[in-house]
Amino acid sequence: MEKIHCICVMRDLFAALSELEEGLSAAYGISLKEAMVLCAVAGETVVAGVISERTGMTPSNTSKIIASLEKKDMLIRRLCDNDKRQMCFTLTRKAEECLQAIRCNGVEIPELLQSFFTV
Q1: 81 phi, psi to nearest 5 deg
Q2: pLDDT tens-digit profile of 52-61?
Q3: What angle, rounded to 10 degrees, do the helices at 3-28 and 93-105 form?
Q4: Which residue pairs from 6-12 have beta carbons closer than 8 angstroms and sit at least 24 positions apart in sequence?
Q5: Does pTM surpass 0.85?
Q6: 62-110: pLDDT as tens digits
């Protein structure tokens, strides 16, 4: 594959992901990264490091997204029961309802990304 072609394909993928994010934001009021964090936490109580691992985001970026979700009342922060030096995160009812709405109603998948989601 020609080297410049890789960049052009990445440009198209980035545009498709931006389109996906616009759909998430319009329908559910959350960004793609916020949705990824909600999925990473769903049904569990986890530390920020686990969220970073599950999403592939840097710790700094994870921290920003966690703060954003806390402001939206979608994430609860508290001291971990087994290690008081760490903070644990769980979803709020609002976040669980948001994830359930996404499960039920879905989100428009841009054509370029549809092949990733066919089973």
Answers
A1: -65, -40
A2: 999 999 999 9
A3: 120
A4: 12/112
A5: yes
A6: 999 999 999 999 999 999 988 888 999 999 999 999 999 999 999 989 9
The structure tokens listed for 90 are 């769980």
CB 51 within 8 A of CB 69: no
Q: Would you say 116 and 20 are in contact if contact means Cβ atoms under 8 Å apart? A: no
Q: How many other C-beta atoms can be found within 10 angstroms of the C-beta atom of residue 98?
A: 22
Which two three-digit tokens encode residue 85? 């030096």
Q: Which domains does the chain have, with CATH numbers?
A: 30-105 (1.10.10.10)
Which among 77, 14, 17 has a CA at the least distance from the CA of 47?
77
> In this structure, what DSSP letter does residue 101 have?
H
Determine the 3-state secondary structure of 15 from DSSP.
Answer: helix
Type of residue at 34 = E
